Amino acid sequence: QVQLVESGGGLVHPGGSLRLSCTASGRIFSSYAMAWFRQAPGKEREFVATISRAAISTSYSDSVKGRFTISRDNAKNTVYLQMNSLKPSDTAVYYCAAGLRIAMGSEEADFGSWGQGTQVTVST
């Protein structure tokens, strides 16, 4: 496993934007598929976005497609989630995840390393 630390969460109004960051320890970051998941109160953790090892491919859940963008900077051991046009339904704890099992994935079981989470609250 690698150590992951998320940052960038906070309170925003509907329609606002946030940029989440996830920084990994070690120098093999480029070997990992990365993803963002989120968990709202009373709900199970759900997939948000994923990016392949070499950033060749990305994939998004239907609920965020067109609004969120995942990217990575392997030189900085960092993955980002740019979130635009935020809705109250986006309110959740957002988790960064890293995995070696597959090139990219949308299932929790695909990822063996998880960050502590960062709270995103979208409210008036």
Outline the fold blueprint:
Elements: E1 4-7, E2 10-12, E3 18-24, E4 33-39, E5 46-51, E6 58-60, E7 68-73, E8 78-83, E9 92-99, E10 113-114, E11 118-122
Parallel strand pairs: 2-11
Antiparallel strand pairs: 1-3, 3-8, 4-5, 4-9, 5-6, 7-8, 9-10, 9-11
Description:
It is globular and about 40 Å long. The protein has 124 residues and is mostly beta strands. The protein contains no helices and eleven strands. The strands form two sheets. Strands 2, 4, 5, 6, 9, 10 and 11 form a seven-stranded mixed beta sheet that branches. 35% of the residues are buried.
Helicity range? under 10%
Please tell me the overall pLDDT: 95
Low-confidence regions: none
Specify the biggest β-sheet: 7 strands, mixed
Query: Helical segment tally?
Result: 0
Shape field: globular
Question: In summary, what is this structure?
Answer:
This protein is an all-beta fold and 124 residues long. The chain has no helices and eleven strands.
Characteristics:
124 residues, mainly beta, 4-stranded antiparallel beta sheet, 11 strands, 0% helix
